[in-house]
Amino acid sequence: MCLRPLNWDTAERVVLDASGGMLPEAELPTHSDAERDAQLARTYVVCPGNDDVPQHELPYRYPLFGTEPVRIGLVGASSTGKSHLLAAMIDQARKSTVMARYGLRVEALDPQRYHLYLNEVVAPFIDGRQELLATADRPELRYSTGLVVTDEHSGRSHSVVFFDVAGGRLERPGRESDFLNRLSALLCVVDPTRIHGLTSQGGTTGRDPAFEHVRQRLRQQQANPALPFLPVPCALVVTKSDLLRFRGYREIDGWLHEKPDAEADLSTVERESEDVYAFLGARGGGDWLQLAGECQGSTLHLASATGTGPRAQADQAAARRFDEALFRQHRVLRPLLALLAMKGVMTGPAADALLLGRGPGT
């Protein structure tokens, strides 16, 4: 997050209390192993930060599973739907049977902040059908939420954390975006309303500045700039894909009308990637493909976190809501599952089928 070295064993530890305050761990003695294990799930390691990133805390369990943590960064300009997509992913990962079908068990990395994310982001969006506010452009840098993903095929567990920051921050060249150099996977969000002519909502052709800046930063941090591919996998998602239905786009029309259980079949990801690539390349979205084309392993997807657009409320100050009859999540887990397979978090026959033939840049 701030790229400072930190001695995990000697750094200050604090425990998050019920009100969200931080108490020094030393002031909270435990009387049994079970009590200590429960407290460790609420324990954080304090990092002092740097001139641009204030002091912050990381879950004590973050590096303790014997595997490399996976740091997923959402990439896209403001208002592209990154926060809605992430909230839909987290909700589906915890509630649907798809993860278990692939031998994956999902739990909170840090339970209290995870439940805070569920209560403040997921519940208003999924249960209340409220449109989420644009992510605030704050000086402090925090991951949005964190999971522990355990794969029954390998027996390994990984910390998986998601960074959903304001699009403006992704576009700035200063130290506050240095964290991009330590991302280990990219979830790139393409808003079709920004591409001229794709939807009935206008759009303008041109690069997404967040995509371009992230690509440049990752290129700069490579030890050997001559290498053809960036050392991170990428899942590129055309979100708000409900806006593309019934518009005669033959390349993708079949994917937009799939049955709800089609999400559980990852053997079609390569074909979907080819179709989405052809669709964007032929219809004015070629600039959005450059980052994915330079990553070491990429998949391309169509998804909708809402199934419909928000409706204006009589009270102009109230949050806009999505229509109850049309509101649904469509294909939101496929990009996450693809990234987990490309990072080796998910193994087994389904992951092997997804990865088969997927070399760098494809």
Mean pLDDT: 85
| Strand coverage percent | 15-25%
Helix and strand content put the structural class at alpha/beta
Low-confidence stretches: none
What spatial form do the alpha-carbon principal axes imply? globular
Note the main sheet: 7 strands, mixed
**N- to C-terminal distance:** 29 Å
Helix content: 25-40%
Compute the number of strand runs.
13
User: If you compute it from the alpha carbons, what radius of gyration comes out, rounded to the nearest whole angstrom?
Assistant: 20 Å
The SSE order reads EEHEEEHHEHEEHEHEHHHEEEHH
By oligomeric state, this entry counts as single chain
What does this structure look like?
- This protein has 362 residues and is of the alpha/beta class.
- A hairpin with an 8-residue loop joins strand 3 and strand 4.
- Helix 2 packs across helix 4.
- The longest helix has 17 residues.
- The relative contact order is 0.15.
Give a nutshell description of this structure:
The chain has a seven-stranded mixed sheet with strand order 6-7-8-5-9-10-11. It has 362 residues and is of the alpha/beta class. The chain is built from eleven helices and 13 strands.
